[in-house]
Amino acid sequence: MSLHATFPPRVLSTSIRVLISICGASQAACSAIHSEISPIATYQRPAVATQENNPRVQRAERTPDPPSAVPTKSGSRLVIFRIPISGTSAFADIVRVDLLSVKTSIVDVPSAVEKAFAYPAFTLREVAQALHPLVVISGGSSDGGTVPAPQGLLVVGAHRLSPLDMTPKRALGVVCAQRDGKVSIIPKTARTVSSCFGALQSGPMLIEPNHHFGMEHRDLPAYARAVLGLDTAGRYAYLIVSGEVDPYSLAAQLYRPVREGGLDLSAAIVLGSGAGHAGMIVMDRGTRRVFGNENATLPSAIATF
Fold it and tell me: Which is it for strands 183-187 and 198-202: parallel, antiparallel or unpaired?
């Protein structure tokens, strides 16, 4: 079996050699597959749009830094801030990333973490140590087993590592990344799912594409959540870790206009729910910031470089 993915030099500079062990009921039944694969799919930066050739960028380029923004060493690529969630005591910590100046990756966690000895579960902290990203956030639902495994579609570098879960009312959205660097959030029923260079299925969608409020019920449990949001112009991605809050209240805050304390997002999807599945690490030129649980075990993640 070969999972070798070939990328242009501009897209992926190195491959990580990993040893994948497939074991049966006993150690004697284990067979080892030694292969050269890439655990991440890194996308080229999209062509830089200008005010002259893309009027949507005019709005994005005027986006001011929030009043609560924390100064960073990475300039405009990275803005860190916090907002309160109205009607609750919870806050959301947010990293706004300029998609025109970073590379975005879908990460297959077990393949990304190289160790002298293999064991089945890996943490967000270990992913950050292995890949040295600008930002990494936990991503993708687990199937609930002892070893985290994707609950739904996982595509890395055009290689499908896990199939699409079409179970009704579960994991309804897909984070879709193309070779040219464009990132979108689409329904799992969309025809374009099959064309994603990298894909991560999760949900629920707090805000459905094109700024449609995605939540119907107010009485859902309050959990910490990891979320990916996109702005209307497609210029910025918002990587979010919230405190314990119900998804309706969180969605409402992300949906509100900026003048009312919200983010006015075009789309937003939950990547993980619960303290064990919601974490983010920022590596700001030597300054390490942790939001949520860095020791959460996870099957997949989203990283920017």
Answer: unpaired
Give the residue among 276, 247, 302, 305 at the shortest CA–CA distance from 102.
305
CB proximity list for 212: less than 8 A, separation 6 or greater = none
Domain ranges of the chain: 42-304
2-7: long-range contacts, CB 8 A cutoff, minimum separation 24: 2/35, 3/35, 3/37, 3/159, 3/161, 4/35, 4/36, 4/37, 5/37, 5/38, 5/41, 5/156, 5/157, 5/158, 5/159, 7/38, 7/41, 7/42, 7/157
Q: Round to whole Å and give the CA distance between 120 and 300.
A: 13
pLDDT at 270 > cutoff 60? yes
> Which three-class secondary structure state does DSSP give residue 11?
coil
Question: What is the pLDDT, as a whole number, of residue 152?
Answer: 92
CA distances from 134 to 76, 164, 304 (A): 13, 29, 6
Q: Are 158 and 2 in contact (CB under 8 A)?
A: no
Cβ atoms of residues 81 and 66 within 8 Å: yes
Please give the model's pTM, rounded to 2 decimal places. 0.79
| Residues sharing a CB contact under 8 Å with residue 6, sequence separation 6 or more, in sequence order | none
Q: DSSP characters for 234-289?
A: S-EEEEEEEEEE-HHHHHHHHHS-GGGTS---SEEEEEEESGGG-EEEEEETTEEE
Instruction: Report the distance separating Cα 302 and Cα 133, nearest Å.
Output: 10
| Token pair listed for 187 | 């329904």
Q: Is the pLDDT of residue 43 over 80?
A: no
- Of 68, 101, 88, 112, whose CA–CA distance to 298 is shortest? 112
Q: What is the pLDDT of residue 234?
A: 86
Cα gap 18→37, rounded to integer Å: 7
Judge whether residue 98 has pLDDT over 50. yes
